[in-house]
Specification:
Length: 317
Amino acid sequence: MVAVTLHRAVEIIDSFEQLLADNDISIPRHPQTGADMLPFWKILDSIKKGDFDPSSSESRELYRAGVAVHDLAVKVLSVGKDPEVFAAIRKHLELLASGAVHLASEPPAEADAYNKLIELYWACLLYGCGVKSKLDPPKKGSIGLNPDVISLDSQNQPVNGYAFKTIRSPHTESIREHIVKGVSQIEVSPAQSGIVGLHLTPRLSWGSAWPDDMVFTDYRHAANIAINAMRTMLGAVIRDNGQAAVDQIFLNKKAAGSVLCIAFIPTIVLSPETGKPTFMPIKISTIIHMASNITLSHSLYLENWCANEVMQRRLIA
């Protein structure tokens, strides 16, 4: 387990803002997005004043927002200093200056910047694996005819398409519709194969993975709570529609008969180094099978495996 101190996290976020400023992208241009960059500063200031209460609801919100922006900053800084990579992700980064990210609060239904962040994040993970990526331009109000991220081979030819959907509704029909749309996007794209990605952070219960007055002895307990919740959601889609109907969605399609589920959840665990309660972000990237017959290409499997490795292990830029 790699521990990142608050001071180091603040330095990383400052470096992230500087990278953007050096490329004429100003975070403070949007007041809400600018405020979203400050959670760890507020925590440090509170600690210095001696009035910091880690168990308060305000502190939880600050930690929740702080780890989100820190993780995004690390992933961008790890690859974004390469001019070619920065050019590829620039349009998505510009969204940070034009719309609120809503890291510390529930985003509205049409929060374009928030919805597009998962695409930026995944592209950075792939670049971190040495895989070039093409991002669909983040046009406001776009109807989204293409996968959001397409990996490229050494000849810049399309390989795998990733169609990401941010899930807010608890209704299984809404989830099914998102999956159907993602499968269609992959099918008409130049990608050889692909997978629908569901960003489930807005749908997961924070309380179950971060209960009051409780500390997990192992972070995997909190991770399992989140993964089981994901499986329950998708299992309900199969239950309500029937396995045959779900199989039909993926039949003879380039999209795998599985979905990539992603979520970010904060929790408190006992540090194996100090034995003290320590704040930890749980980052989930898992593939859940939906269809009876699964077609997951070797390249798609390797990309997802490597992306998860970068997601979990790259904590310092």
